[in-house]
Specification:
The protein is α/β, with parallel strands linked by helices. It is built from nine helices and eleven strands.
Length: about 240
């Protein structure tokens, strides 16, 4: 089981995968149009609705801002690597993202939100050394998890090699790279690889990449948050592909 909290996250879950929602809990004595609409949609799908106290929602959601609503849902299960290979065979010009070593579920969710917005065909997440797809990740993703093709990866280095053999160009993000992210060509089949909050990509992963790119910083901070950097690079890819 997992908890999906927040009006927008629950709304998207109801819109895309209502069959996975088991119970909707809303704050007792709270009256607003958004909550009323969520209750109406839940009952339309025969989902149990419970009126509970704010304190009960706080306990259910830990430190996630719930906005007076939370849903108990079947846990999100990433696609298998064999399912990814089947999807890959149908793609004409794949645009993919791999997220390595991101340990904060909020950052992971924000990366997934950027990926969904950029139209990424699939997101590869190592099964180890990664934040869980928890309620915090769901909240930060703002519904993106319901429509993204997320894949659990056993060995990212081997999967990168497999993709390269299929003609995919692998570009990693690295603060020290000489090539700026806007100088790279994303119009070809591309896998963008981003690294964790503290240390970025592992050296093994960097060594597997065909190119490394950086985002120039004009201020005093050394780098952007991983979710922001992910959005910046992905949308450069979108810009080039659309032109």
């Amino acid at each position: 089981m997992t908890i999906v909290a927040g009006i927008h996250a629950v709304q998207e879950f109801l819109r895309t995968t209502p069959e996975r929602m088991l119970k909707l809990s809303v704050q007792r004595n709270r009256r607003d149009a958004a909550l009323a609409e969520l209750i109406r949609q839940a009952r339309m799908h025969d989902i149990q609705v419970a009126q509970v106290s704010r304190e009960a929602l706080d306990r259910m959601c830990d430190d996630v801002a719930h906005q007076g609503v939370a849903a108990r849902c079947q846990a999100f299960q990433p696609h298998s690597e064999s399912e990814f290979e089947a999807l890959f065979a149908t793609l004409e010009n794949p645009f993919l993202l791999a997220i390595e070593g991101v340990l904060d579920p909020r950052n992971l969710g924000a990366c997934l939100r950027s990926a969904e917005g950029a139209g990424v065909h699939a997101v590869l997440i190592p099964r180890n050394r990664s934040a869980p797809l928890s309620s915090a990740a769901f909240k930060s993703a703002s519904g993106a998890l319901s429509s993204l093709f997320v894949v659990g990866i056993g060995n990212l280095a081997r999967r990168i090699e497999w993709l390269q053999a299929k003609g995919v160009w692998v570009v990693g993000t690295d603060d020290q790279a000489d090539t700026r992210f806007i100088e790279h060509d994303y119009r070809v089949p591309t896998l963008v690889v981003v690294g964790g909050e503290e240390n970025g990509l592992r050296e093994l992963t960097k060594a597997r990449c065909d190119a490394l790119v950086s985002i120039p910083m004009a201020g005093r901070v050394a780098s952007l948050n991983v979710s922001v950097a992910t959005g910046v690079v992905l949308y450069e890819g979108v810009r080039q592909r659309e032109s």
